[in-house]
Amino acid sequence: MLAVRAGNGNRVNPGPTSRRSIVRRLLAVPFALSLILFLSAGTLAWAKGWVFLLVTVVALRVAALYLWRVNPEIFAARRGIHKGTKFWDKILIGFVIAALLAIFVVAAVDYGRFNCSALPWWAVGGGYGLFLAGFTLTAWAQGVNRFFEPGVRIQTERGHHVVATGPYAFVRHPGYFAACLLFAGVALSLGSLLALVPACLDALLIILRTSLEDRTLRQELPGYEEYSQKVRYQLIPGVW
Prior knowledge:
Elements: H1 19-41, H2 47-70, H3 73-77, H4 87-114, H5 121-144, H6 174-189, H7 196-220, H8 224-230
Helix pairs in contact: 1-2, 1-4, 2-5, 4-7, 5-6, 6-7
């Protein structure tokens, strides 16, 4: 989630990505989520789980269509961790993914096994607001940033540079802010107060990653220090 975007310079295609591979990924995500949710819940009779899957499928499709139109390179860029990714980031990514999976598992177990922290409809609705806001911001950031890879590295072979456009004109790491919205949104959308515990843990890991990545970019990416003087905040305008 590098806090830089493509400008008007020459683009280097990171590799061909077929529509078929994109479709496979769009199908794989909800399928994996359905296994995690309903196996953890121990039942298929979970309305909130099915609604969440439906919303996720629709959001993924809309985001994919938007990105295919404005920045198709992003699909290849985000296929996996690329060579040169910082070692500390590889470790941190593992913890972030584990905490993310824990949000789904805790929410499902909370509903299917214990049902001890069910939330009212207005809290669930607010969760979907956060979830969709995070999804929209993520798509916007990816749409203007062809360097939006899963791992932290300086993409020298792709002409890595700083351009302050889109959401990056307001904060230096909008993708990470979007991730925090998504974590809270998932927990609330699934109706589980307990799931906010791993969601908060994941948000703390994202804050740590933001700080480490920002330091890396200041040290290694030409022009980033000047950019950070113009866009002062890393995650939340007026706060940090």
